[in-house]
Amino acid sequence: MNRLWTLAVREWRAHVHAPGTWVLLGLAWFWLAAMYCWQVLPASGHGDIQYMLWQGALHIANLQILFIPLLTMRTIAEERRSGTLEMLLTAPVRDHEIVLAKFLGAFGVAALMWMLLPFLMLLAVMSGGDPDWGPVASATLALAGTAGVLTALGVLASALTHNQLLAGFLGLILSFAFMYLPRLVPSDWQTLQEVLSSGDLLQQVEESARGIVDLTNVAFQISMTLLFLFFATRSLESRKWL
Amino acid sequence: MALNRGGMTGGWRAGAFAHVVLASVLATAITIGFLVLMRRIAWVTDLRFDLTAEGTYAVAPEDTHLLRGLEVPVHATFIWGFDADIQQRVLDAQGEPRSDLLWQHYRPVLEDARRRVQRVLDEWSHVSPHFTYAIIDGETEPRRAEAAAEALAVTPEEALNRVILVQGSNRREVPIRRMMRDMQWGSFPPWPGAQMARPVGPGGWSVAAELGSAVRTLNTGERTRIGIVAGLNGFAEPGSEMHRILVRTLEAEGCQCESLELGKTADLSAFTAIIVAAPRMLLDRKSLEHLRAREANGGRFLLLADPRFGENYTGLLEPYGAVLQNVMIEDRTLAEPTRSGPAELQSMRFCVGRHPIDAPLKDRVPLYLGLSRSVLLQNVHAHGVEQTALLCASQDAESVPVRLDATKGVAEPLPAERKKTPAPILAAALSRKVHGGAAESRIVLFGSAGLLAPDEMTLSAHFGNRDCLLNCMSWLTDRPFAAPTTARAEARVRLVSVASYEKPVRWIGVICLPLFAMATALAVWFARRSM
Question: Could you count the other beta carbons within 10 Å of the beta carbon of residue A79?
């Protein structure tokens, strides 16, 4: 556990000490706050906080599709390209610990983005509003879950190739497909639509932003995260025999 | 043994590859299995938690119990759009509905209703695999709406703005208007200078309660048998529009309507209530005896009369001390300018409000009665008899006597003999204890058959006729009232001043935070360069 923690903190520091991470965060914060300020607030009727929370959560969830693959593209691919991966693999750590540490490091940075939502609600309190903290908590939990799935998917994409750009592109495609596929299926294909809609992450965020915590959704997010991390570990292992 | 890159044999590499593939497939299968298991568990135990302060999405325990106990699937269909009732409010000079007003003023109200209905149905669909629903926007998905209405064997117009719950061959309908409390629908008259009234959203909603009660009665298979007397050339003879609307309205509430001919139907006790809708023919002696026998055994009747035709309800009404007077009521104070004259009664001020039938409608919605007789309530001094006036005309009302031809049952008004009759009673609820108090007979008596007028029954936001009829039937059959008097608690809408909130969001969110991030990026870049 100690080893994992050390590796995770090292990964997180590596992200924080990269100027690119801050540029990405700055752009994401700016985009989200600008959308919130000029699109969500004017459309909130007489200032319905619930609507603001709901829309804010959806904007963050959508931006995560772009933000997280760009954040995770370098996690393993960079190590592979620079040749440090072999060194890491020969160190006394297990493959799954490496993958988990990479995941936790990136997830810690992604958290800086989705924590913007409770921060915006704090600003609402400062402005005399009285948000219902239950939906704020459930929306934050859902955004964390979505970020977990997308980060794991990004780490997997990064583990599949040594090219950062390719990893980023692959992560983007996979994230986009994972988030939007349930909504792109034609309504005629009812069975497929029903199956996919049970894993519709955007819908899960929408539900949570209303104040509902559904343990089946939480289980879906956690199991998908673990599955993608498992795939990433297998992919890392495959280097031993390729 | 041939070694290749990495010093591994081809066989070892193939084995390792197979191992990875197998492990991945197994992991995927385990994950899918786990998720399916979670979904199954969700059908039997609560895995959804409502974190809102008001418990907005919490499904009531009794609803959860009911939904989990569904053995036959229930499907709810909600088609929403601009129904005839709404379109009537925005007619232009040519009599066509104005789409700009519809979309600007009524669409938001309907969207709000849709959102609330969807919220409840969606939560319910998570509780039970036997509960499914479809919500269709009648304006943007007309073909889908038509197909859904056809499947429900109704016209798209009839299906609009009501949640239709179907379980096997049974169905219940809950109009959205019943879920709204104190909704002001407004109107936009076409003539110049007319005062427009924008719709004002309801003061409260009772979506879950109304739908819950509908599913409950649907699932218990509870069917209240209602007999509609036929063969007397009455207003609601089978085949007439009034009969069709009456049957449809009652069947949507879970009643089973049957036409009955008094001379031929032997057992009246099979019917929970009997409707006699203003017969144009007098009841013969045998039929009257039949009705009296049922009344004396706890029978429940809705009796409607008309001043143009004679009736002989006297035998039925005698024990209650009620008499239908042979007069036609005129009321110039409450007269509607759109109606033909003071005898065609329509007003929002008829309801007395002392009985659960009319109390929810008092000063809320107009009632159309058309031509009406008055009801005289005499003091009978009998134990267990209760008389409650439901509807009254104004203090300035006048009564015009009518002369009845007893043989033909036709009446002739005598305008020359009109006289002032302050606040005549137009409808009354009567009850009396029978069998030593073990049973109760009830009669709701209307001096008018206009209550069942098809147009007024259909336009349920313009007129309270439908709610009034349903409340009468609810009282007669001991069922929950369609338009309840009790207000329900409403979730609080949390607001923040947009103007004061925008400032910190703009300064901190749009400017400070991104600037901080960019400054950190620069600092990190310089620090890395100098290392």
Answer: 21
Which of A55, A215, A217 to substitute to test the interface with B, most B CBs within 10 Å? A215
- The structure tokens 């965060």 sit at A25
Q: Tell me whether residues A19 and B528 touch, CB distance under 8 A.
A: yes
| Mean pLDDT, all residues of chain A | 90
Q: Smallest Cβ distance to B27: which of A21, A23, A227? A: A227
DSSP B172-239: EEEEHHHHEES-B--B--SSTTPPPB--B--SEE-HHHHHHHHHHHHHTT--EEEEEE-SS--TT-TT
CB contact under 8 A, A135 and B8: no
Q: Does the beta-carbon distance from A129 to B497 stay under 8 Å?
A: yes
The DSSP string of B51-74 is -STT-TTPPPHHHHHHHHT--S-E
Instruction: Tell me what pLDDT residue B4 has.
Output: 52
pLDDT tens digits, B268-287:
888 999 999 888 877 888 88
Rounded to 5°, angle at Cα B7 from B5 and B9: 90
With CA atoms as reference, the chain B residue closest to A18 would be B524
Cβ-Cβ pairs closer than 8 A, A with B, add up to 184
**Any idea which residue has 């409608």 for tokens?**
B361
Which tokens is B132 given? 């499914």
Q: Which of B28, B521, B527 sits opposite A26 (nearest CB)?
A: B521
The residue type at B453: A
ipTM: 0.92
Q: How far is B30 from chain A (nearest CA, A)?
A: 10
The predicted pLDDT at position B485 comes to 43
Most B CBs within 10 Å, among A212, A226, A235, A236, to test the B interface: A212
- The CATH class of the B223-477 domain is alpha beta
pLDDT number for residue B378 = 86
The residue ranges of every structural domain in chain B are 61-217, 223-477
Spatial CB neighbours of A234, under 8 Å, sequence gap ≥ 6: B20, B23, B24
Tokens of B86: 């709404």
**One-letter amino acid of A139:** A
